[in-house]
Write a structure and sequence with these properties.
Layout: H1 2-29, E1 31-35, E2 50-54, H2 56-60, E3 69-73, H3 101-109, E4 116-123, E5 128-132, E6 135-138, E7 141-142, E8 164-166, E9 171-175, H4 185-188, E10 191-192, E11 196-205, E12 211-212
Antiparallel strand pairs: 1-2, 2-11, 3-4, 3-11, 4-9, 5-6, 5-8, 6-7, 9-10, 11-12
């Protein structure tokens, strides 16, 4: 009888462990829910809205499309002085990478201690980006941004930032729709594709705004 009980307990533990592993794999490679915590994507996304993220972009390492709203790992350095801005090498810095498989599992899979940003893809690899006169230009042509509120200007804060560069290979340039209230690639440079975590797929809540974003 005791052996039967022990066997049942072991089987339950085994099932629970398998379920947790499958859930973690699904969350990392396929999709996961999240909550908007900042105002940088207003008016498109508001604080406390619930979203479903598509992780497939990370699984396939595919370059997102212009206009996609994505999440990516927060760079380790987000504030630069004028002397530190290198327009010839506009790549965001990630200098606090976990060193062993345990800390990598905790950081990347469990996402403990990791912060992410949610922004809109503006420019793709090889494109020449210029921010001037309150507008964004790609390859010398002003881009149309219908998702912005009326009279919004795109500028470099305090005159220090990335505003005239070519997006490096396997990287993207992204900004928040709330240009004045967004810390983004203007401040810290372009995001390597391996740091892109997901694409925003569906807005779950509020229910009156449910649907694909």
């Amino acid at each position: 009888m005791e052996k039967s009980k022990i066997k049942n307990v072991v089987e339950w533990i085994y099932c629970i462990v398998i379920a947790i592993i499958l859930a973690l794999l699904f969350r990392y490679y396929i999709g996961t829910p999240t909550i908007v915590k900042m105002s940088s994507m207003q008016p498109t996304l508001m604080e406390n809205q619930r979203l479903l993220l598509n992780r497939w972009v990370r699984t396939t390492k595919k370059i997102p499309n212009r206009g996609d709203i994505i999440t990516f790992e927060k760079p380790s350095k987000i504030n630069y002085s004028a002397k530190e801005i290198d327009q010839l090498n506009p790549i965001a810095k990630y200098e606090n990478e976990p060193k062993n498989w345990i800390t990598k599992f905790i950081y990347y899979v469990l996402e403990i201690g990791k912060e992410s940003y949610i922004k809109r893809v503006i420019a793709l690899p090889g494109e020449h980006v210029q921010i001037k006169n309150g507008k964004v230009y790609i390859n010398e042509k002003e881009i149309e941004e219908k998702y912005l509120q009326e009279n919004v200007k795109t500028e470099i804060k305090y005159g220090v930032g990335f505003d005239d560069f070519i997006v490096p290979e396997n990287s993207i340039f992204a900004m928040g729709d709330n240009r004045e209230g967004s810390v983004d690639c203007r401040d810290f440079g372009c995001i390597p594709i391996e740091k892109v975590e997901s694409k925003v797929w569906i807005r779950i809540m509020p229910f009156n705004k449910f649907g694909e974003v």
